[in-house]
Amino acid sequence: QQSRIGSGSLYALGELALPFRLQAVAGLRLDYFSNGGLSASPSAALVWRAYSQGITKLLFGRAFRAASVYELSYHDGGVSQVPPLELSPETIYTWQLEHTHALGGRFYLTGSVYFNDVHGLIGLGAAGASPIACTATEGCVQYRNAGHVGTLGAELELRRSFGHGGSLSLAYAFQRSRDLEAGPLFGEGATRILNSPEHLIYARAVRPIVRELLILGAELIYGSPRLRRDGQESEHMLLGNVTLSGRSLRGGLSYSLGVRNLFDWRYGVPVGAEYASTQLEIPQLGRTFLGTLGASF
């Protein structure tokens, strides 16, 4: 069975200078999908340059994700999974407050807090109405709009910039995601989300060695344990990645050589109920060597 999806988009953006060193920015994007109808995605920002070394931003936005062809159409003839009659787009509303302060000597400190409200998450659940009948005695699964998730988070980053594109940054991020269909964001009855780390720390460095011809990049990422569907937690994650990349100054050649998971850290990512009850995680790759070579004309 073949499915075709048509789409079209239209957007507008405007800026307005206000008194007291304020600037307002607003935008609207209209998207049409033949499988999801018309969706409007407004966005707005209020920027305040309170003093010469600092800038504060208040941001709001609405976005969506339409169902994919796979989510709309996949089935195995009703043996274990059937397609849905329809799927509405996932929708997210986000609010963020951010402030950046220039410390001097090319050092910048940025802090932000945010809240995301996600409606209509698309995921597998017990099958309901479908154009294909389920033949399994124990029932089938089906993609459905059945999720409402709230995320409250905060981030803090210290960054040092260098000439010719070099930078060094250290950041910490915290996020609390809860199933708002099952309970509140805080307090008794709050329900954690599967595969959602609450703490993330990273250090990143980019250093041009020979201008654009040879650039060294390195990062160290720590992720806290994630909840599995058996109620236990996965192992924490510590990844080191190193990359050498560059491009010719006159021609169209580019390359990159890298090592992912430099310390060969063994960890897995929790999976949902669509997997067998004995499979709670998917093991991730250990130390991996990567290389690319490209040319443009």
Overview of the molecule:
The chain has 297 residues and is an all-beta fold. It has one helix spanning 69-73; strands at residues 7-18, 22-33, 37-51, 54-65, 90-104, 107-119, 122-126, 141-145, 148-161, 167-179, 199-210, 214-223, 237-247, 253-260, 268-270, 281-283, 288-295. Strands 1-2-3-4-5-6-9-10-11-12-13-14-17 form a 13-stranded antiparallel beta sheet, with no helix packed on it. It has a two-stranded antiparallel sheet with strand order 7-8. It has a two-stranded antiparallel ribbon with strand order 15-16. The radius of gyration is 23 Å and the shape is globular. The model has no long low-confidence stretch (mean pLDDT 92).
Task: Describe the secondary-structure layout.
Elements: E1 7-18, E2 22-33, E3 37-51, E4 54-65, H1 69-73, E5 90-104, E6 107-119, E7 122-126, E8 141-145, E9 148-161, E10 167-179, E11 199-210, E12 214-223, E13 237-247, E14 253-260, E15 268-270, E16 281-283, E17 288-295
Antiparallel strand pairs: 1-2, 2-3, 3-4, 4-5, 5-6, 6-9, 7-8, 9-10, 10-11, 11-12, 12-13, 13-14, 14-17, 15-16
Can you describe this structure in just a few lines?
The chain is mainly beta.
Instruction: Please tell me what the overall shape is.
Output: globular
Largest sheet entry: 13 strands, antiparallel
N-to-C order of helices and strands: EEEEHEEEEEEEEEEEEE
The largest beta-sheet arranges its strands as 1-2-3-4-5-6-9-10-11-12-13-14-17
Mean pLDDT: 92
| Number of β-strand runs | 17
Structural class by secondary-structure content: mainly beta
